[in-house]
Amino acid sequence: MKAAPVWICCQLGAREHYAAPRALHRAGRLARLVTDAWSPAPLRGIGRLGQRYHPDLATADVTSFTTSLLGSEVWWRISGYRGWDHFMTRNRWFQSRAASSLRRMREQRPALVFAHSYAAREIFTAAKRRGWTTVLGQIDPGPEHYAIQERINGLRSEYKPSAVSPPAQYFESWRDECALADYIVVNSRWSQELVGRAGVQQSKIRVIALPYEASGTATSFTREQVLAYSATRPLRALFVGTASVTKGVPEILEAVERLADAPIEVHFVGHLAIEIPQRFRAHPKVRWVGPVDRDAVMNFYRTSDVLLFPSHSDGFGMAQVEAMAWSLPIVASRHCGDVVRDGETGIVLDRVSSDTLAAALRRLIAEPGRLAAFTTRARHGVSTTLASFGEGLLALERT
To answer: How far apart are CA 175 and CA 145, in angstroms?
Structure first.
């Protein structure tokens, strides 16, 4: 009987809470996790290094370069690396060490090597020399996403967007990764579309949505049903994440402006990546909360009536599934993960604009029963578990 192949995950950082190696380890198929840093037992849960660990991987075979990373980070800081220069330098550093680790492995079984985009070229080169299958985990929708970001930012100079697109060599390296990859895993059909637009072979691309496992508190939560919204009990809309032009924040603010006569308030939770025009800084219907810890974010999901996710481009949008776990309906765009079922668990905007967003919110305010129906069905919209995510990866062995 032919032995099942094993997986080697090369992961820089704690992206997606180590979803890929955790799913494969649970399935008994992870041969090794190669990562930049792994927390020693005395530090687990303490500080940034303490977050480089997951109990699901306590029995996994882990190779890390923690001491080298700490020393390198000091040197990069002294040398003045900032922004994309720092990001790309760290990616090259990790690839070099991970590729060297692959070359030294004595693994004789057939293997699949998983690595995330922009830090995979050297890793895949080493894997190919050993005859192993390569799987690229695409972390964003690729160069077309940044082209959209630049276009939208150019139209929104009032907000002084701070986002800077990667340099050309960033995507040159990425195209090499795509050529070396046997499979490219994206998290949404939107990412699939944009990666394809960049010229990547569509037959390589597989859509596997990100997993999310809700807490027991969320799954047992019962949301308040509001019979009518008023000045004393307005519709509580929520935005969670980095407030940027690409995420649709200007459209949200301008929609609120259009709803001057409507009972609504919007809470913005997360880091500000734009300059807020003066007229919105102390707007009576807008609350600027800023970054908060995870427990506080969960409380906002619990106390809000609807999540706003009108992104112009997003690889997935984890806030959507977090909201669904709390049975919170969503108004979203089509340019992100396929989480919302239009007319069932929320509203999907065909076009992102202040007009379309204001119209959707006005309808929800006028028809609280519609929002209550969305709420009832919302929790059932969370369907991708860690096990099903792992099944999606393992299916690549059979294609």
So the answer is: 15
Q: Do 262 and 362 meet the contact criterion of CB atoms below 8 Å apart?
A: yes
DSSP 248: T
Alpha-carbon gap, residue 9 to 122, rounded angstroms: 14
Cβ contact 25:60 at 8 Å: yes
C-beta atoms surrounding 362 within 10 Å: 17
pLDDT, tens only, 231-249: 999 999 999 999 999 999 9
Token digits of residue 145: 């996403």
β-pairing, 133-137 vs 111-116, is parallel
The burial class, CB within 10 Å (0-12 / 13-18 / 19+), for 257 is middle
- Per the listing, tokens 């037992």 go with 41
Q: Decide: 321 and 382 in contact? Cβ < 8 Å.
A: yes
Reading across the β-sheet that carries 205-207, which strands appear in turn? 62-64, 30-35, 6-11, 111-116, 133-137, 183-186, 205-207
Strands ordered across the beta sheet of 330-333: 286-290, 264-269, 235-240, 306-309, 330-333, 346-349
Query: What is the amino acid identity at position 273?
Result: A
Q: Which residues have a Cβ under 8 Å from the Cβ of 121 and sit 6 or more positions away?
A: 95, 173, 176, 177, 180
Distance between CA atoms of residues 204 and 183, nearest Å: 5
pLDDT digits (tens, 9 = 90+) for 282-329: 999 999 999 999 899 999 999 999 999 999 999 999 999 999 999 999
pTM reported for the whole predicted model: 0.93
At 349, is the secondary structure helix, strand, or coil? Answer: strand
Helix axes 386-394, 19-26, angle to 10 degrees: 80
Q: What is the longest distance spanned by two Cα atoms in the chain?
A: 71
Report residue 54 as tokens.
């997951």
Domains and CATH numbers, the chain: 6-211+385-398 (3.40.50.2000), 216-381 (3.40.50.2000)
SS3 9: strand
